[in-house]
Amino acid sequence: MQLFCVYYVKIHNKPKKQTMKIKYTLPTILALALMLSTSCHKDEDHIVEEDDNGIQTINSKPEDEDPIVLKNRELLSELDGNVSDNGSFVIEQAVRAGNWEDGEYNTCSYSYISTTASGQPVWLTGRMAWPKDGDAKNIVVGCHSTITDNASCPSKSISPISECGIASAMFASNSLVVFPDYEGFGSTADRPQAYLCQEATARQVVDGIAAAREELVKRHHGSIHDGHKTVVIGYSQGAAVAMAVQKYLEQGFPGEQPKTEAIHFAGIVCADGPYDPLATIKKYVSDDRLYMPAIAPLMVKGLCETHPLLAGRYRADDFLYADFLNSGILRWIVDKTHTVNEIQQSLCDYSIDHSLGTGEYETSTGDPVFTMYGQADLHPDSHMSQTDGYIAMNVINNDNYYWRTTSGSRFAPPSQMLKKELLDFINGKSAKSDAHTNFLMALEANNMLTGWTPTHPMVVFHSKYDEVIPFVNYENAKRAFSTTAMFHGIIYNTRMIKMHNDVGLIFYALYMSNYAYSILNSKAYALEPETTIDGMY
Fold first, then answer.
1. Which of these three, 403, 429, 455, is where a domain ends?
2. Mind listing the pLDDT tens digit of every residue in the chain (537 residues)?
3. Is residue 339 part of a domain?
4. Is there a domain that residue 368 lies in?
């Protein structure tokens, strides 16, 4: 879910805690999940520092970074020849459409105190950008998509082709742009990602908004217009986080009052997000295709380490097959030095080096051998027939093909990653253990489409052909919220750009700013309840 890495799992020798085996059905756990808070367990982190206000945190305050001035014209010249063909095309269209402001802005990383997914005070980081001259008229908050390397988090990167870079280019010459790092990146890179722990991530983003506003005024001597409004944007994982921010701002975090007035909240623009994690994984299982295989271990590891139903009781190997784990996937996630695309390529290399091919099994365990599948073009001297289908990436046929690397050209079957008992439960069979019941309840507890009704505008954009985040998420969001006047659906149904990564780039560069400004200018009411975008792109 990246636009343009567990902590190696330690195997404990002590036996797992015995639990009663109770049969649950999927409808039962959905009802139970609604009664659960997504608040996470207390951990055993040690307090290492106390700030000036007497707040004790588990890590030290990062060093403050001095702001630098960026000029959009210079950034555009740097992009020439240094991005993909699709990237160049999209940026060119964005400039022609006038979405890329010809201005200057300040940017720097910043730090603030928030709370970990396990409830401990912690110093987090993010990136902020603001006008070089004059007031910030509004606040634009970005929730970043899935990353696996620390170098790609907002506080560490000022790439003009990143989500933060594009949003800054479009808004920072007149607004304050805020992109918080999620827990597990920046100043907390030594901690696991709180992947799919939506309440905790939303709280961290909300804390980051307030901190950036204060940082601008007190440290950088900037100012924000008295009548400013705040819009929250996000793509992919960031879209689900943006929706979580709206939910908890409007209804309040547990035990707290709503905060919409405090941050001048106006609405969200979200695109291709996994708002319904259970429906998402059921689609993966039904199709037996996962085009971004890193999602499975990120999801399993994140929930096992942060959700109260799973933390301290289960590990990744309770849900994932050994051969998939033997690839090194958990180590790559923990290292946080591999991008999502690099992990994808490493899984392909692992598949090519060791796979026995489709349908083959390890004789010792009977578990599936992990295999990546890819689209390929033939070598010129090959006598094999041309095909556009997906082929098992293994040593048998690797010499005969040029493997494609474009978005949507590779996938892994969930049946070779997720253990059969979990798959059976997802498919409607009774649970054989509490592990499977608790796992699906943890997923459903992070469903952003239940338990609330939006009171501020939400623009929900989704590509009909997204191979990573299935369209069922849009359909379920429409079903949940379309009876309110706040929901505005955008179905992206073009012929030229369809796949997840490409759609993310074009969403940020061509569409996001228009929808964000419609909310900031109080014109969201003029948007149709549902619009379909056709044509080339």
1. 429
2. 554 432 222 323 333 334 344 445 555 555 555 454 444 444 455 555 555 567 899 899 999 899 999 988 777 766 665 556 666 677 777 777 776 767 899 999 999 999 999 899 999 999 999 999 999 999 999 999 999 999 999 999 988 888 999 999 899 999 999 999 999 999 999 999 999 899 999 999 999 999 999 999 999 999 999 999 999 999 999 999 999 999 999 999 999 999 999 999 999 999 999 999 999 999 999 999 999 999 999 999 999 998 889 999 999 999 999 999 999 999 999 999 999 999 999 999 898 877 554 445 554 677 888 989 888 766 555 444 444 577 777 755 556 667 777 777 889 999 999 999 999 999 888 877 899 999 999 999 999 999 999 999 999 999 999 999 999 999 999 999 999 999 999 999 987 888 898 899 889 988 999 999 999 999 998 899 999 999 777
3. yes
4. yes
Whether the CB-CB separation of 411 and 373 falls below 8 Å is answered with yes
Asked whether residue 36 is domain-assigned, the answer is no
For 101, residues 6+ apart whose C-beta sits below 8 A from its C-beta are 72, 169, 170, 171, 172, 173, 174
User: Are residues 251 and 303 both part of a single domain?
Assistant: no
Q: What is the DSSP letter of 524?
A: G
Q: In angstroms, rounded to a whole number, what is the distance separating the alpha carbons of residues 440 and 95? A: 44
Query: pTM here?
Result: 0.88
Residues 114 and 246 in one domain: yes
Do 329 and 451 lie in one domain? The reply is: no
Q: Specify whether 341 is located in the same domain as 204.
A: no
Residues 265 and 410 in one domain: no
The structural domain count of the chain equals: 2
Could you tell me the CA-to-CA distances from 391 to 361, 380, 385, 402, 407 in Å, in that order? Answer: 17, 18, 13, 12, 16
Residue 463 has which token pair?
Answer: 């590509």
Tell me, yes or no, whether 183 and 270 share the same domain.
Answer: yes
- Strand pairing of 49-50 and 139-143? unpaired
Q: Are residues 225 and 367 located together in one domain of the fold?
A: no
- Is the residue at 341 inside a domain? yes
Dist. CA 209–CA 195, nearest whole Å: 20
Q: 416 with 469, same domain? A: no
What's the Cα-to-Cα distance from 239 to each of 170, 186, 512, rounded to whole Å?
19, 20, 12
Q: Domain residues for 227? A: 67-276+447-533
